[in-house]
Amino acid sequence: MTSQLQTAFGDVFRLLKAILVMPGLLSSTDEEFHAQTPTIQPSLFTKLFAPFRKIKSSLPGGAALTSEQQATADGILQLLKSYSPPGDVNNSIRRIHVETSINGIVKSGGLLHLTLPAFPFKSPNSIDKVLGTLPDIGEEIALARLEGLCADLERKFCKTQLSIVSDGLVYNDLLGVKDETVWKYGSALRELARRKFPHISFVRLNQLVSTGTEEAKTLDEYLATAGMYRDRLVASHTPAGFDVKTHLEQDPSALMTYRGYIKFLETDLAYAEGREGLSKKGRKKLNEIVAKKMIVRGTAFSNAVSSAFPNAVRLSIHPSLNKKKLPISLFPGSNNNFVTPWHTASVIEMNGTIRLAHRSTLSADPKYELVTRRGLPSHFQEASPLYHWAGCQIDVTPLYPAGLVISPQDGPDAVSIEKVDMMKVKALAELNSPVVLRGFSSTPSPESPTTRELFMKKGREMGPILPWKFGEVLVVKDGGDATGGLNNVLSSEPMPFHFDGLFKTIQVSDRDGSDKLVPQPPQFQVFRAATPSPPHTGFTMISPSRLVFENLPSPYTVEQLSGLTWSCRTTAFNATALAKLDLVVPHPTRGTPCLRYHEPWGHDKTRFDPTIVEIENGPQEILTVLDELLYDRRVCYYHSWQEGDWLVNDNVATMHTRSDFASGSSRELWRLHID
Question: TauD/TfdA-like domain: from which residue to which, for each copy (predicted)?
């Protein structure tokens, strides 16, 4: 044991020495923050940390994990890593402390507790960088992504909770941001989490430095103690004899953070009082002074977080070499590595992709227009006539991870569904499904004397309705054992991911002249919630192909999947058996690759007829890869129905399913197929 430890620590010492002499790492030049991240070859880390892997079973707690527990711990770590910024050169670092925390949680069978220091306050520069002082769509999407991470961890492994520790009071006075501004920003985030994100809670500074202290309930109470807790943090958690200059020389992660602070401060303090007339060199000098103070306070803050949450898994929104932290990205996409909504504004592209940039950049681009919600600026979107309807003022809000919700600007039931431009809804659904219409009244009119006739009328405005054995409108509700020839569709069971129309087939001649059954799927589905649905259950889940392909794990690629075919057979739907089905097909109007698939659904998942699915010319493991991705919250939108909701979905561009719900409940949806 002793010789193993000596060898291991000797290797780590050589690693640290190698890091500290990397060319340019300790340079004082002011390059971009992320450009300063040192490139370390994965093979180096594999070699250097191998001794720790060898002695793992000899360390406290290392040998106690069963093979099943180890698989769970490894799965948790891999899921967390899937939220790491793609392409980050430090992703190969083995986070020993993170692994130890996860192993301890799995061993105890307790709550998986995550902590994330983040969400301080908006940048004080609302001229160039941000849209204001309150949270906007950027914060909402970031929280939705974190909620999705927690929900997936809980679905697959164990109960999970995320504590976001706000560092607003740690730094705000250094940047000229008032304590009151920090309070209002944090309070708005807490209300957002309370309404939408049950796995997320927030921790204020007073709760961090004074264990057992209740959170301030009023602004006056908060303001009365803010300065005291800030001083207490620095006094009680700054290491004895701490010297910031020495710290920056010896800690590569701290140096990266310091350079990042300097870069951010250039714009954060661009309009700060007392800086008028200063030269660029003079401003830089002041920024360096502020950045060093932030490093001192940040060190104290980090120690306080570790002390308050010793067993939690520590997440970070900054690039880091620190083995105690696991870096994650608050936004999807390789262009959003380590960007935060409190330093930027958000722009939503027509296909639903989110991008973050400075407000001044987006304002100057005629391609984009500013969107307001509840009278406050929220985000930018591509300027398009699809977002503007004649005689109907609407709010268009992006959903995470995909889709839109469109509501009347004047509130619920202020506008009839009759006024909705269904051709524009159809066009939007082709670009970014699903499109949810919420808050429009469905009051029948003389032209459409019943709600069902109104539903069919609006469907026909999109195109011809495609009937099937049930007619034009399918009423989807729990029918018990009465399947209506539709297998488990009319039950309260969960359903497999699928596309509609797989089992609506015609016979054609194959290339070799033989007869072949092929599906006849519609391009669109239109749903309407005719009744309230039970809360937190009976979700309609929609996974766009774009997001499936963007999140394919290595070594799988869209090109590889495009060459595969699959077969499907079931005793339901007149004992349908299909073969030589392309796994990827082009979208009929846009030409983009679309997944065409049915999740395998055996007797272990249903009391009705099973569906057997096989890859014909490739490894069967691809089925597991696809099934995992389709439920992944980075890919899948979980829709919770409200009475009166309409939902339009592109049946080719997406896959969809339903979660289970209480048998005999009132959940009732109407569905149309539109071509």
Answer: 416-672
Residue length of the chain: 675
d(CA 272, CA 669): 56
DSSP for 601-663?
A: B-TTT-SS--EEEEESSS-THHHHHHHHHHH-TTT-EEEPP-TT-EEEEETTTEEEEE----T
Check: CB of residue 626 under 8 Å from CB of residue 548: yes
Q: Which residue has the higher pLDDT, 242 or 17?
A: 242
Chain center to CA of 507 = 42
Is residue 130 in some structural domain?
A: yes
**Looking at the predicted structure, is the pLDDT value of residue 185 above 90?**
yes
Q: Tell how many helices (H) and how many strands (E) occur in the chain.
A: 19, 26
| pTM assigned to the model | 0.88
292 C-beta neighbours (distance < 10 Å), count: 17
Q: What is the pLDDT of residue 661?
A: 86
Q: Half-sphere exposure of 94 toward its Cβ, with a 13 Å CA cutoff? A: 18
- Judge whether 473 and 668 are in contact, CB under 8 Å: no
Mean pLDDT in residue range 89-110: 82
Cα-based angle 145, 147, 152 (whole degrees, multiple of 5): 95
Greater pLDDT, 448 or 155: 155
Residue 281: Cβ-neighbour burial (10 angstroms; 0-12, 13-18, 19+)? exposed
- Looking at 336, 354, 379, which one is the last position of a domain? 336
**Domain carrying residue 224:** 69-336
Residue 11, token pair as written in the block: 């290797």
Q: Does residue 265 lie within any of the structural domains? A: yes
Amino acid letter for position 197: F
pLDDT tens-digit map of 107-140: 999 999 999 999 999 999 999 999 999 999 999 9
Shared domain for 455 and 331, answered yes or no, is no
Distance CA 238, CA 529 (A): 56
275 SS3 class: coil
Q: What pLDDT sits at residue 31?
A: 30
**Cβ contact 311:126 at 8 Å:** no
Q: Which helix (H) or strand (E) element contains residue 313?
A: strand 313-316
Q: Is the dihedral of CA 252, 254, 257, 261 positive or negative?
A: negative
The count of structural domains within the chain is 2
Residue 151 lies in a domain: yes
Last residue of a domain, one of 280, 313, 336: 336
Per-residue CA distances from 381 to 135, 232, 384, 430 (Å): 17, 44, 9, 17
471 and 332 within one domain: no
Do 164 and 291 lie in one domain? The reply is: yes
Q: What are the start-end ranges of the H helices in 515-586?
A: 545-550, 558-562, 572-575
Q: Which residues make Cβ contacts (< 8 Å) with residue 85, sequence separation at least 6?
A: 91, 319, 327, 328, 329, 334, 336, 337, 338
